[in-house]
Amino acid sequence: MQNFCMQWIYLILTYARHRQLFTLQVENAEVPGGDWDEILRNERINRRITPSYLSSLMAAMVTRNVAAYEPSKQTRAVLLYWRLPEEWADVLHSWATSTGQLNTILTFYEISDPPIPSSLSGIPIPLLRRAITVLTRSNRAQIIGVADGEGVRFFAATK
């Protein structure tokens, strides 16, 4: 059973990465026609994952730190870590460096919805915030309050 659970987790994370999906909800197993149908349902053989099993898979993913409940005080939706926040931090810092954004204040919106699509396009704000927190701990970023919410300033990596 443990191996079966790990196979499901791998399938979910791989599929999410391929389709750029960041969230999974118990409702995805209940309602047909969504982004997750390809792996949660097989109409040809009349099979689908049950909401209770999906909920247990989500709990296992949270336990293994490859997902987090979002919002945190519920268990029906998770933020998927097909890249860990530490990996997103590196992607984010590389993006800021390669696009000339060092020492520039950017809003979270400008990062998650840039004018030129990037690997950060569509990243949920809670995941972006976790990645920025990783960068602030290593002195590669600073969170700054701006007029329309929060912003961040990126710094060059120190050796």
Describe this structure in words.
This protein is of the alpha+beta class and 159 residues long. Helix content is 45%, strand content 18%. The chain has seven helices and eight strands. A three-stranded antiparallel sheet has the order 1-5-4. A three-stranded antiparallel sheet has the order 6-8-7. Strands 2-3 form a two-stranded antiparallel ribbon. The radius of gyration is 18 Å and the shape is elongated. The N and C termini lie far apart (45 Å). The model has no long low-confidence stretch (mean pLDDT 91).
Oligomer: single chain
**What is the string of SSEs from the N terminus onward?**
HEHHEEHEEHEHHEE
- What's the arrangement of strands in the largest beta sheet? 1-5-4
Proportion of beta-strand residues: 15-25%
Kindly report the average pLDDT value: 91
Tell me, what's the shape?
A: elongated
Short description:
The chain is 45% helix and 18% strand. It is an alpha+beta fold and 159 residues long. A three-stranded antiparallel β-sheet has the order 1-5-4. The protein has a three-stranded antiparallel β-sheet with strand order 6-8-7.
Write the layout of secondary structure elements.
Layout: H1 2-19, E1 23-25, H2 27-30, H3 37-40, E2 41-42, E3 47-48, H4 51-63, E4 67-69, E5 77-80, H5 85-98, E6 105-107, H6 108-112, H7 125-137, E7 141-146, E8 149-154
Antiparallel strand pairs: 1-5, 2-3, 4-5, 6-8, 7-8
